[in-house]
Design goal:
By secondary structure, the protein is α+β, with helices and mostly antiparallel strands. Strands 1, 2, 8, 9, 10, 11, 20 and 21 form an 8-stranded mixed beta sheet that branches. Strands 13, 14, 15, 16, 17 and 18 form a 6-stranded antiparallel beta sheet that branches. Strands 3-5-4 form a 3-stranded antiparallel beta sheet. Helix 1 links the parallel strand 1 and strand 2. The chain is built from 17 helices and 21 strands. Helix 1 runs parallel beside helix 17, helix 4 packs across helix 17 and helix 14 packs across helix 15. Helices cover 32% and strands 21% of the residues.
Length: 525
């Protein structure tokens, strides 16, 4: 027999947006429940770096520049007005503590209002004993650190330098020693587990293995969520925070002309929340967008490239054998260029080209410097190796003369320290993941030592960015601007407040949590 349970607020999705919404509701005196179709909680949050971009109103000029005029000022202002409150609230009601990521710039630090020192925060390492009751159902990370090390975003920056910087070795020693202090969670794992602990303390149930089958409508308003076992009714409203449509092949082909193979979003992000909202008349925005990033299509799944593109001794070419972008630019911008959305292109296929010096120095896709690369990468055509650039060009199907000329010109830029074609290394963001020992430009190094290597580079993503149109209170809106009564959305189920831009590390999770918080406050009010 199907059963019916009643709450003030029903939240669909157990990532940072959903758990923040439920936690806020509980501390405003409302009864709340979190439901998730997965058997683990955390969604894409648990797979993420866990960074938060939550500045105050001082970032108004910068956010307007990044997001553009298509994002209403009221939404931008709501993020900046309430973001710091969210941080204070979560710190007060969970075991989480946060620290600034030192020196991590905004993604456009030279833009009006941008900061070279950045605004990104990350969770401090969280002792697993503080969340022991729920660690067994925490979704796994995107890529687990070796030997149980508790790696933070700061640590990753130094580890990526491999054998080139003494701080890399010191960081590895610190992380190895940290294992003797007991297991600790970092990045998105810490954020998700800390929020879950807050829900447990507040008495908010989290129903895993409980998928939404439909939104329940009564008397013209969203009044709950249907599940295979019955209906969870909601007196105040429903918050859809169940991710984007990362793994919905039909939706991605329809809106983006790309499939699902190269996303690293959580498997449960199938677009159901977006489709249910649309069924009730909700408007959609930014459906052709994602949190893009150049990725390696490895045999075990896509690998999202960060430092690999910024480090000296690497460059990216398209099928013509020529460079087409500043390789070290923010990852969304690079893929926009790859897809032909910046006035040229598209530039696919694309190849990341390196040499022996690069591989002898730096971490690459989690592989230690000088460590052999998997044979399966070469067998699958993901990686190619050759003793000459001409031979490498033949293997990846680009004109040999063009590739030789490209590398020769690039090597000249490396010597002078100035990329005259694309300005690689001009931005503080480019230099963050560069090699500080490389002079005169930490992002530019010559490719001279064989064997030369080429790696397939594809337009991957952290998740989709478009979804239900919402207002500054996180209410879901129809095309005419009126709200769908009782329905709210946050996180990647909603169209991003960043528009087509990306302000900085944590500009996914920070707004997701903020609009989850605002949804609950609106229902409480």
């Amino acid at each position: 027999m199907l059963r019916e349970e009643e709450f003030d607020v029903v939240v669909v999705g157990s990532g940072a947006a959903g758990m923040t919404a439920a936690l806020t509701a509980a501390h405003h005196g409302l009864s709340a429940v979190v439901m998730d179709g997965a058997e683990v909680y955390g969604g894409s949050t648990a797979r993420s770096g866990g960074g938060l971009w939550l500045p105050g109103p001082e970032a108004s000029t910068y956010l307007k520049h990044v997001a553009g005029d298509e994002v209403p000022a009221a939404r931008r202002d709501a993020l900046l007005e309430h973001g710091p409150d969210v941080l204070a609230f979560v710190t007060a009601h969970t075991p989480l503590e946060f620290a600034r990521v030192p020196g991590y710039p905004d993604y456009h630090p030279e833009a009006p209002g941008g900061l070279a020192e950045g605004r990104t925060l990350e969770p401090r390492p969280l002792d697993v004993r503080r969340v022991a009751e729920d660690v067994g159902t925490l979704a796994p990370p995107y890529r687990a650190a070796p030997n149980g090390m508790a790696v933070t975003a700061v640590d990753y920056r130094w580890l990526s330098l491999g054998l080139r910087h003494p701080r890399s070795a010191l960081t590895a020693v610190k992380l190895a020693a940290g294992r003797f202090r007991g297991r600790r969670l970092t990045m998105g794992q810490a954020l998700a587990a800390g929020l879950r602990a807050g829900l447990r303390s507040a008495g908010v149930p989290v129903r895993l293995g409980t998928p939404m089958t439909a939104l329940h409508v009564s008397d013209g308003r969203v009044a709950g969520v249907a599940t295979p076992d019955g209906v969870l009714t909601a007196r105040r409203g429903v918050v859809l925070a169940c991710g984007g449509f990362d793994h919905n092949e039909r939706m991605r082909r329809e809106h983006q002309d790309l499939g699902t193979a190269w996303t690293v979003g959580a498997a449960g992000n199938t677009g159901l929340g977006i489709e249910e909202g649309q069924r009730l008349g909700a408007a959609l925005d930014l459906m052709d967008e994602a949190w893009w990033g150049p990725s390696l299509p490895l045999t075990g799944g896509a690998y999202f490239c960060l430092a690999e593109r910024n480090l000296p001794g690497s460059l990216v070419v398209d099928g013509t054998g020529r460079r087409f972008v500043n390789e070290a630019a923010p990852y969304v911008d690079v893929v926009h260029t790859m897809l032909g959305r910046t006035g040229s292109g598209p530039h696919l296929p694309a190849w990341l080209v390196t040499d022996r010096s690069y591989r002898d120095r730096y971490l690459f896709a989690g592989r230690a410097p000088r460590a052999p690369l998997p044979k399966r990468w070469f067998d699958a055509g993901i990686a190619h190796r050759a003793d000459t650039l001409d031979e490498l060009a033949e293997r990846i199907g680009v004109p040999a003369e063009a590739l030789r000329a490209t590398v020769e010109r690039f090597n000249g830029f490396a010597a002078s320290g100035r990329d005259e074609d694309f300005g690689r290394g001009d931005s503080a963001y480019d230099r963050y993941y560069g090699d500080p020992r490389q002079r005169p430009n930490p992002c530019l190094g010559a490719l001279t030592r064989p064997p030369f290597l080429a790696f397939s580079l594809v337009p991957g993503d952290l998740g989709t960015k478009g979804g239900l149109r919402t207002d500054e209170r996180a209410r879901v809106l129809r095309e005419d601007g009126t709200p769908v009564p009782g329905l709210y959305a946050a996180g990647n189920t909603s169209a991003s407040v960043m528009g087509r831009g990306y302000a900085g590390a944590g500009a996914t999770l920070g707004p997701a949590m903020t609009f989850g918080y605002l949804a609950a406050r609106d229902m409480a009010g």
